[in-house]
Amino acid sequence: MEALIRQFRLSGAIDRTEPFGGGHINDTYRLTNRFPAEPDYLLQRINHRVFPDVSGLMENIALVTAHLRQRIAAAPPPANLQTTLTLVPTHTGAYYYHDDRGYWRIFVFLKGMQAFDLVSTPAQAYAGARAYGYFLRFLDDFPPERLTAVIPGFHNLALRLWQFQAAQYAPAAGRGSRCREDVRRVLGLADRLLVLDTLYKQGKIRSRVTHNDTKFNNVLLSEEGHGKCVIDLDTVMPGIVHFDFGDGVRTGVTTAQEDEADLSRVTVDTEKFRAFAAGYLEVTRDVLSEVERVHLALSGAYMAFLMGVRFLTDYLAGDTYYKVSGPEHNLVRARNQLRLTEEFLARLPDLQELVKRA
Ligand code: GN1
Ligand code: MG
Predict the structure, then answer these.
(1) What is the pTM of this model?
(2) What is the pLDDT of residues 248-295, one digit of tens each?
(3) What is the mean pLDDT of residues 185-201?
(4) 322 C-alpha vs ligand 1 centroid, how far in Å?
(5) Which of 105, 111, 277, 311 could anchor a disulfide with 334, C-beta 3.0 to 4.6 Å?
(6) Angstrom distance (rounded) from CA 128 to CA 130
(7) What's the CA-to-centroid distance between 75 and ligand 1, angstroms?
């Protein structure tokens, strides 16, 4: 590690390197500085199998963080989204370093922040939603076509269903028979969710710069509970607001972790939904169109369903994409997300009302 770390322009001296965080894709380490006045850092190995175009991805992050930094400086939002990630360049001025183990990058570590896998109060949902709202708002004037589509069709549901069908026709040993009922559920739900995908493809919902991985634990909250910084920018690319609002509520207003096996615990907390919608819309209302706003209520179901399909596809394929803790991990995640989809759909009229009133 030392030789690798020495490639980057760090201040102070690194004393400790330890694994950090719970991402399913990249490997992350925290680097602790010997000098308390100097920053700590976050070292990441980019998953090159998931992100083949590392230079396009890093270019996206450099562009988006520069734009956000400028917008934040011009009109700092009170208590919210007050900062963005800072990339640390190598001595040759590049934003990543390639060695025989992979592609590496370093960010400045933000101290005194918290991330939550599960939201415990509506106030937290509100705070996180505001930060995600500012993220969308501040990138409203950034032309989406300047960004590389790092994973083309990432949230394209028709494509995800096609990949799912392909996996289902050639499942890994013993897996097809374990999930027949789940496969049927996917096929039964698909039509209700494809609506959003179709509106996007017809150009009725505008393409904008979206984050595309707005899990609730990708917004850092301060100790006072304000949403300070949006992290994990790997999937920033052109998308629709529903991908971000949807993934925010998928993870921020659910009552259980994404891999909770006891499905009776998986439901939607409408108070937290109300708070999330209020926070998000307070900040974005005037940049969203009517058609964007009207479909926000469906977006939680859309994202939960898309994740359910992706997890089930990976289960059928033999766990080639996500990190897993055992052979059934992806199946548990898939069932959880399909249940969550049904919970969102069952409350759709209420959620529509809450969005309208937010
Ligand atoms: C992955 O990086 P991480 O673990 O936050 C995935 C997201 C999924 C998420 C599900 C590039 O995100 O799309 O929502 O797992 N990222 C990629 O927890 O596939
Ligand atoms: Mg991610």
Answers:
(1) 0.97
(2) 999 999 999 999 999 999 999 999 999 999 999 999 999 999 999 999
(3) 98
(4) 8
(5) 311
(6) 5
(7) 31
